[in-house]
């Protein structure tokens, strides 16, 4: 596992955006897996700046969704499809027909989950999957003790997660769906390159467990240790509990370019 320690969230965003830009220069129709939330915003903003500057062409790029609420119409402003349209597709100039995501309004949600896994495979697989991490080590909506071989499936949100997400629904928890569709850990591990961005002191324990702890379902993100090309980008605060932090700084900080992106 590559571990790159950066000064702050903005630096992490720039680094990952450049990795995506390099990928798109090599493979203009690359399938980028994206996540919602505040953590990846610096990545999308930095990549959009490169698009505006003419440093990268995204007109053939494709976007795949990590997770989605169950029951929210696709055009609901807080559906993850709508969020990604605002934060990723529109700033990057990528049309909606280049977007792949699970159908959270399907009558048969389990069938929709299985269809999404098939759609990802038919698209050639995800080239680079961007991930965030929860304070408990979850990735996507794969909470602690999720199967490390799990596929895209429906999950029930914890009460705390619904409370946390109520801020996006005018503070009204009654509007927050009870269920989501999420790519499973097994599905996530099929991407060719996994890039996890972690920022802030609140993520320090989870980052340490992911990188230096055992591979265990109690920390779903630790499954990244099983992947042949996984990169963790952490700011100084998120990396503060890594025992090997100095080693990682010395290994990656002075590379002329981040290899393998």
Short précis:
This protein has 261 residues and is of the alpha/beta class.
Please bin the fraction of helical residues: 25-40%
Q: Can you identify the CATH class?
A: Alpha Beta
**Fraction of residues in β-strands:** 15-25%
Radius of gyration from CA coordinates: 17 Å
Number of domains: 1
The run of helices and strands is EHEHEEHEHEEHEHEHEH
Number of helices: 8
Spatial shape: globular
Main β-sheet description: 7 strands, parallel
Mean pLDDT: 94
Strand order of the largest sheet: 1-10-9-6-2-3-5
Distance between the termini: 13 Å
CATH architecture: 3-Layer(aba) Sandwich
Stated plainly, the CATH topology is called Rossmann fold
The tally of strands reads 10
Low-confidence stretches: none
Structural class: alpha/beta
Kindly list the characteristics that best describe this protein.
alpha/beta; 3-stranded antiparallel beta sheet; 33% helix; globular; allosteric enzyme; carbohydrate metabolism; identical protein binding; Glc/Gal-6P_isomerase
Can you characterise this structure?
It is a single chain. The protein has helices spanning 9-26, 41-52, 80-92, 109-122, 159-165, 185-188, 204-212, 245-252, and strands spanning 2-6, 31-34, 62-65, 67-69, 99-100, 128-131, 153-156, 179-182, 193-198, 230-235. It has 261 residues and is α/β, with parallel strands linked by helices. The protein has a single domain (2-252), classed as 3-Layer(aba) Sandwich (Rossmann fold). α2 links the parallel β2 and β3. α1 packs across α2 (41-52). The longest helix is centred in the N-terminal third of the chain and has 18 residues, at 9-26. The two termini are 13 Å apart.
